[in-house]
Backbone:
């Protein structure tokens, strides 16, 4: 009976005009659309259409998910608190070699390395469709390199591009995903400036461009100033975006805010009772950072469980001045202190809600949260 009812509903929806079905699909999460592809050929053709894919992505910019790589790939909807697990793609194995990822339009630019040979590899991965493609270097990738992903004025026509650069070696390359080819950038703007990227910052892609926390020495008085370094994939030049507040003794996390801005979360390493959240203006010609809100509470958790472990929190700044974070922590359990993965909601008064999603003990836990990211699931195909 349930099967017959389901078939009737499917037949009824399929009989609607295609433009009406399209409007319905624009309101559906990407995960639901993926499950709908085998239903009928007309739906499958629509869901695979690039115009539909990018319009759906445009209408769902805030459909955020938390992605965490541990012993498995874990994806959580921070609103519904539902979580699913899938195996880590064999291309990214072994587990402890994953170094960093950058998100753009539902695609993850993955960097991982062989600890013994110190060779680095890159790949593009769509966690929703589970498709992954390796990127071959022009010569070789190095552990000192930084990477970014973005696109020019027309990503539909020009496709995605990948930036590789080393602020120590002073070399810069662009990879065109459509042609699978690298080319060297010569005389690039800001290439001779005395700046270094903050080694803890893997970069954030916003509206097709890349952004990092960086430092430079002011030669007059030898002071170090912090700023946002950007890369424009249209002009293929670095940008001095704006100054950021100093954060010498604080853990810092740069992220996207509201789709077209940046957020910077700061928490003192020694005194975690204070969290400052800064946000930028829209990323246009003139950009500035202002403090959005401050949380002062002695019961605040340390969002980075240990500076000696690669356990950066997965977080985003939500409406009504709230922090939603998924990170490691510890709880007392007799004489043992198990590692827990906890979902926090933090507002201006402190922790308003918390939920333990996992608990591990040393004898049954192979590693910590090696990589965590906020990403928007999409049906964007790999180039």
Residues:
């Amino acid at each position: 009976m349930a099967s017959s009812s389901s078939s009737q509903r499917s037949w009824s929806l399929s009989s609607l005009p295609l433009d009406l079905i399209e409007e319905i699909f624009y309101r559906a999460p990407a995960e639901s659309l993926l499950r709908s592809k085998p239903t009928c050929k007309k739906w499958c053709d629509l869901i695979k259409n690039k115009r539909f894919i990018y319009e759906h992505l445009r209408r769902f910019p805030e459909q955020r998910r938390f992605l965490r790589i541990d012993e498995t790939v874990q994806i959580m909807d921070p609103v519904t608190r539902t979580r699913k697990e899938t195996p880590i793609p064999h291309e990214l194995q072994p587990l402890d070699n994953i170094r960093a990822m950058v998100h753009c339009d539902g695609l993850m630019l993955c960097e991982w390395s062989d600890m013994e040979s110190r060779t680095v590899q890159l790949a593009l991965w769509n966690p929703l469709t589970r498709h992954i493609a390796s990127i071959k270097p022009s010569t070789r990738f190095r552990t000192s390199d930084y990477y970014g992903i973005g696109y020019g004025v027309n990503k539909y026509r020009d496709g995605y591009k990948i930036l590789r650069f080393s602020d120590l070696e002073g070399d810069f390359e662009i990879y065109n995903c459509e042609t699978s080819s690298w080319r060297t950038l010569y005389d690039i703007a800001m290439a001779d400036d005395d700046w270094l990227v903050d080694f803890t910052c893997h970069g954030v892609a916003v509206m097709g461009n890349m952004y990092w926390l960086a430092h430079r020495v002011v030669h007059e008085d030898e002071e170090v100033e912090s700023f946002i370094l950007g890369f424009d994939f249209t002009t293929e030049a670095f940008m001095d975006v704006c100054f950021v507040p100093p954060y010498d003794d604080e853990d810092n996390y740069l992220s996207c805010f509201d789709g077209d801005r940046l957020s910077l979360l700061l928490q003192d390493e020694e005194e975690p009772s204070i969290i400052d959240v800064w946000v930028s203006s829209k990323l246009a010609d003139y950009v500035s950072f202002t403090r959005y809100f401050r949380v002062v509470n002695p019961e605040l958790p340390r969002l980075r469980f240990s500076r000696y472990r690669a356990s950066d929190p997965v977080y985003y700044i939500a409406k009504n001045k709230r922090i939603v974070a998924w990170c490691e922590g510890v709880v007392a359990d007799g004489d043992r202190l198990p590692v827990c993965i906890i979902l926090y909601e933090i507002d201006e008064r402190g922790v308003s809600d918390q939920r333990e999603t996992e608990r591990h003990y040393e004898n049954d836990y192979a590693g910590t949260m090696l990589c965590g990211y906020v990403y928007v699931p999409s049906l964007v195909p790999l180039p």
